[in-house]
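Final report, closing paragraph on structural work. Over the funding period we assembled a curated collection of sequence-structure pairs, and we close with a single example.
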Amino acid sequence: MDEEVDPDCEKVNSVLDQESLELFHVLCCQTPPVIMRLWNMMPTETGWQNQHSSTSSAAASVEDRIKAMLEYFREASTVECRNFLLSVCMQCENIPMRLESRLMSVAGYASTDAVQNPASASMSLTNTGGSFDSATNESDQKSSTPPFEEQLIKRPRIDHWEQYVSEVMSLLQRRWGRLTECLVKEVQLEKVWVGPRTANKHKDRPDQTPNSADRGSRTPEPDGDYGYLESKVTLETFLQACTGKVTVLVGQAGSGKTLLMSCLGQQWTNGLGPIPSSYLFVLLEFRQLNVVSCPLSLSDLLFQHYLPPNANNDAKQAIVDYLLSNPEQSCWVLDGYDEFHWKLDKKKMQSEPLDFKEPLPVAELISGLLNRQLLAGSTILVTCRVRDLIDFDGLSDKVGELLGWDQHMIKEYVSSFFGEKDRSLGMQATDLLLSSRHLLVMSSLPALCNICCICLEHLLLEGSDAQHTQLLEEEGSKAVKIKLHQEKGGGRGGDRSRRESHPQRGEQSGKREGNKDILMFSPTSAGVPTTLTQVYLSVISAFLSRYPNQGERYERPKTSTFSQSSVCALASLSQYRSELYELARLAWGGLETNKILFVEEDVPKHVLELSVKTGLLSQVELRCHDGTLVSAYCFIHLTVQEFLAALRIMTCNDISDAQLKKRFSLKTRWTTKSDQKTVFTDSLYLYVCGLSSPHCTEALVEVARASGIKGIQSWVKKRQALVLNLLKALCQNNNLTGPKILQLCRCVQESQDHQLAKLVMTVRPTLELRNFWLSPNDIDALAFVVNSVGDDGIGLDFRACSMELECLDALSRCQYIHYLSFRSRKYGDKFAEKLSSILPEFKLLRKLEFCGASLTATGAASLTSGLQNCPHITDINLSDNNLQDEGIRHITQIFTKLQSLVSVTLGRNNTSLKAVEYLVQEMSSCLNIQHIHADGMKEVRVTFFEKSDVNGHKTKLEPTVSLLNQKWSKDDMTNLAKSLTRLPALSVLDLSGGQWDEEILRTLAEFVPKFRISERIILNDSCSSVVCVVALTTLLSVCPVMELHIGLQNLVQISIIFNGKSEKPVSEMSKKLCLSCCNLLPADFERVWKSLGTSSGLTELDLSHNHLGNKGLKKLLDVLPRLSEIQEINASNNDISMNGVVMLAGALCSRNTLKHIYISNGGKEQVILKFSPNQSNGKEQMKMFRINNSNLLPSNITDVCRRLVPCRFHLELELLHCSFADRAIDNLLKVLPTMSSLQRLNVSNSITSTTEALTLINCLINNQRITSVELSPQSESLICFDRVKAKQVSCRLAYFCFKEENIALMERLLKNLQLSQQLSYLDLSNNQLEDEDVKILVDSLPRLKISSFVNLSNNKLAQQGVLDVASTLCTCSNVSDVDVSLGEDRRCLIWFSDKGCGKTLSVRESNLACDHLVRLAEIVSNCPSLTKLELKNNKLQSEWIEDFVKLLNSSQRVYTVSFFISVEEHWIRAKEAVSLLCRCLELSNNIQTIRIHHTTLHLSLMNVTQLTTISGEATLPAQSIVTNIGFVDCAVDGYQLASMWSIIQQCHLLTELDFSYNSLDTEGTNFLCSLLPLLPSLTSLSIAIKESTVSVAEEFSQALRQYISIQHLNLSGHVISDTAAQNMTTFLPRLRSLNLSRCVWSAAGGMQLMETLEQCISLEDLCLDYVQLNEKSLLCLAQALRKINSLQSLKLDGWRMACSGIEQLTKFLPVWKELRVISLSKNLVSDQSGEKLLEALSSCSHLQELYLSSNSLGDLTAARMALVLPSLTHLTVLDISENQIGTDGSAKLSEAIKNLKNLNKINLTSVGTSDLSAVAASLVHCPVIQDVSLGWNNCGDDVVLELARVLPFCHKMTRIDLESNSVSVCGVEALVGALRSSPALQIIRLWRNKVSSNEAHRFSLTERRLNFSST
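Its predicted structure, as stored:
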């Protein structure tokens, strides 16, 4: 609490004189009533009022009166002046904080003697003329001189009125007499302190309670209407001028509101106080009004519930009439609104007056009084608690809060309580009270202070002897006197104990003085109650001990400590457990029903007697509806009732767990209008938590014994555990607001549970407490929780929280704070001084914030004294204060003392540049400062190097300085520059902002050479003239400046970059000059060039966004020879025209070092020149001239190209996004042949029409150097040239429309192509050609010279177009392949070849009809060289396929070679598959092989030579020549094979039968076994299955014993029993091929089979993938392999043979000279073993397929591959996926791949390295490569870019797998470009790469062959 200021009387008038001008403006903004009240403070006899009362203008009147007031009080007495200033501060709004603080400091607190009587003030108001009359009067003025008749009527009224007023005075005097009989201290209003609040008269107060989503972190905006003021006045001063207003006085329960209202009434009776004695003083208590249940009128309220007059009805009517006629002469004191059962409903309040005669509910009657609907102009004074204040929004004129007692007042009361003769006992009591935080906080309220004194007296006297016992009995008898007093009347429950009678201190003291057993207690005694709950237990014990026992029930100890006194308290609870149990029941019942008054019927008689005699219950008078008085009882204080209710909860099983949970909730301190009204203090849950502590268990058990519960102790502990669990749930709740968090801390403190305390801080490491009042008790609870976290540390953030300085004493007990923040204007120098004294106590403090406060230099000095003792602090934030320059200087003094500092923030502190200078000067002595940042004075921050930064860097770290937006003068700049020169080093100096003039800039430039700056100086927004530019450019020649950037656009940007710490000499370093947006003219360029001097080391020059024009460009080109080191010049946006572009073209040819020129918009926008000064003049150098986004005329093309003709270097000309005028392309075609150095012409996005494209195609005729032409309006358009005549040229035209002029465009194109040289390929995809144009093209193919392919994809072909394209196989002899699809890919490719190999035709997804198949059969018949026909997913029906086969059989086609047909349709499965196969065999007599695999029918037609060899007969059965029949994985069941019996038994030449992976049940097995004897030529049998039974293998093994012709057998997946194994031993020796992969057998069976293999000396193919063999079987297999010399294929996947197995295998490999295939995947092959394996394979020269996936191969194996694989020239497949090859191994592998000319498939999935660029590049040496897998390697764009580069050379590539890599959009774009020249490529898998879903979708639409999905 702030101390009272003792003002300096001599300065009051002078301060008013000094502040008159500002005060005048403040007063002019106030309302007329406020001005009027201040005006009336001047005495009327002075003449000032009359002098200004007749002013005509209202506005002028106000200003004149204000001036007159100020003039008067400047000359008035000190007392008058002081009272005037105090009234101004109290009544005026929006006074600046500085002015208010000064006025309050000199005004102090006014004397009541000098304050004018409010009644006279009221009279003055009515007599004042002008506009103030209408503003202040609420009713029309009455005639001052009524007629004689009216006087006759009013006189009796006045008599009755005065008589009634006299009776009220007597009533109040009697009331006060009863109250003062037993008061400990006299009540003095001038010593009661009130904190004024601003009333809310205009709006409802907003609900500021944060919701749950705010998680306790939101700070409600400070409530301007009810904000706490850091000032106080006496109650007497506060009530001055309250007449005619609604005044609200708030205070806590027990703060003495009722007593003070009675005292106010007593003063009124004596003609004292603020209420004139002529007024009627009505004192009503809301708790009395609660009994009113019926509507009543105003007169009923006055005469029935206040004071019935001693008169008849006429007198009553006269009193009421007078009251209604003179409402301003009444004062209504409404005491205890907090006890009122109803809330004021302001929605029902109307502005119309109410009828005083109409009976109304009491709540509406009170609302009418407050809302001025009744007795307008009367004086109303309401008392309530703070939380009820919201109900008076818009009603109250004045609000004040009763302040609690400070320690001085508490000491006074304790001293008065114990009396002068009990001084020693009083001193002990005082020491104990002050040592206990809970007792001290309780004692701040008068009623609770009285209770604490009674408790302390009991504890201190507990150990005295029998005399003490007798003394207690005497004291108990005196309690009867107290009861008698209470029966006469008393205050409300909150104030009762304070008014109790105290025994005669002299008698007691006399008895105690000689007693030597009185114990002297230490204030730090361990027995002092540690929690509020324990205090109340002691209080209950103390009051119970006052009962006059009829004989002692227990023996008291001779001496006592507090711990022993707790035993006595336990004994008291035990002695009166039944009575206490009943009292707890009564308290709980009242709490449930919101009831605090009880009648005799509510309480058992013996309990009532004990309670009254002990003082736990107080007796009060209650006036009934009929006016009679009855006795009622209430607890001595509301908190006592709540505590006893909590005791009931914890000791009674009638209260369920659900009821407990309902009552157990935290309360916020923010009041909302929706809050339910209650009289209680919401402390119940706090006491419940306290009673859950183990310290209270014994007490609870004693009380609970009265309930008769069985197992009482366990029940009590269970109830305590429930409370702790509820607390734990709240501790884990992260959605609590600040007040609720504090309440939670108090609950946890009460429970004394350290684990819960730790949990609170675990959930919320930083507590944010915002915008509410904090008491020392709150901080004490916070300390208990904070101290539970240990060394982890927590943060506390106080924002706009009001707190007394005593709170900081409590805060010092928080040992583990690492972050502490204070933000509020309430915190000033005194607060800082107090804080500095406790800062050293926070040993873990790392961060301190003291922001938005009222700190000055004085406070800063205090803080620094405390901070220097905080060695671990890292962050200090003192922004938004009033430190000024001197305060900043104080702060800088601790920089060198705090070695752990990281950041200090000092912005918004009313400082000048002097403060910044202090900081910069400190850098020279404090070397760990990292950065000083100041943005104006709003942001000032100093950061420091951390110790780890300093120690962790080899090179010394250098600080930076940023002084932004400063208002510089020349002297300021000079002083700063001198300070900067003293710094040992600086990396960056930022002086942006400030709008400097030339003089300041030159001042800085003079000092720059003296600065030790390593990086840069930044001067953004500092200058704006060309003169400044010239001044700065001189730095390039006189300083080690490497870069100078100047831009004078709207946001001026200037930076000076230094050479840093480079070891290169200055002459070898590059220098950059940027003069962008500087408004330079050609003449300015000359001045800039002169300022640079003779410097020729300039490497980059940026002159963009100026006004140089062609003239300036010419000057720039003229100085190029002097720029020997120049690398780039930017002259963009300089008004350059096409004439300047032509000059640049000439410069490109004449300047050897000029490499690239980029121009856009004809030179008006981009103009960039790039140089290569260090390159030689050799022909290898490439030059580029690019024009972008320009409109090019024919003359422009001619002029530019002619200037480029003399170029002696390789040249690239780019005309991008340009628009060609008429004849411009013709001019380009004319000049192209003369440009012999041109290597590439890029016209991308410039050729947009088909006509332009066809015109440009003419270049193929006239220019023999062209190698490729690629034109597209949507992508790149390029023409590439060779040095000499090109052998072939490729042509691509895509995304054009040839329908613009019917077919004329296509004919024109074909005509040009026929005249051109040899074409490698022609790509006309995506041109909307359709069938008609395609027909024209295919008809012209024989006349075109094409060597590779024609691409007609995506041209809207139909089935007719498909057949026309297919017909090219017949019409063009050099067409080798046709691939057509009308599916999603819309594929159409025609391949050419000069070799005489067979032709192929593939038609997919084309929805062919029967007539289309007839036409297709005709094409096949007319093309004898066609060797393969593929029909896939064309929606063909079975009958159509049969007819097609029939047509082929009946055709006259001569089969010079075998002709293969495959037909795939989804329905070719199961029964349909069998039927189709049978029908084909019936319909065709030239089928050699027929197989159905999955859903595909495969046919092979025999050639003529083979037919003649087999038989010379003219006709043969259709089935007689079939050699191969197969059903593979096509869902055929065994029973479906029966229909084939008649057909297969005629196939005498059948050599191969395959029924693998079908459902071969018993019926199917029997069918096949019975069929074998009928097939004498059968040599190969495959019956691999997925699911097998033992019987299948046994049946076949038995059948094969008699069938000696079988040489190739596949039994993959079978279960081979021992019987089957035994059977197989008879025929295995004659096999040449055996597949037993994934077979299952026993150990004996496996042994038999492996032993038999030793006899298979002719075995060529052996597959034993994933079989299980024991050690003996493995030895037998090794013996067998040793004897087999003819092995060609060996598959041993999944054996996990490891090094030993590989070592054995390598011994056999040199013998197998004919080995073609070896598969050793998943065999744990190490890198060393792999090396040996490769070495052994070097002798297998015929090896074609090598599978080594899923092993542990590494760089050694890869290195061996580089040596071995080149000798394996037949290798086609290489699979080394899922190994661990590194970067070196990847390089070696790439060397090996270069020599594999026949390689068509390579699998490098997950090989352990992403460095596969060399591997990708090596694929260019594999001309037949088809399938490449590089997935799951984290490959980047470098690999993809290599793939894109080699793709055009891999014409047979069909698939690339790049799954799960790191390919970005850049890499995918490169693949899209490469796909244009790779039509054979069908899919590139790109799932799981660095391409977003949106980009992936975009790429998929552009190129369907890119697959971004996982399937």
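The first helix runs from residue 12 to 18. The radius of gyration is 54 Å. We thank the funder for supporting this effort.
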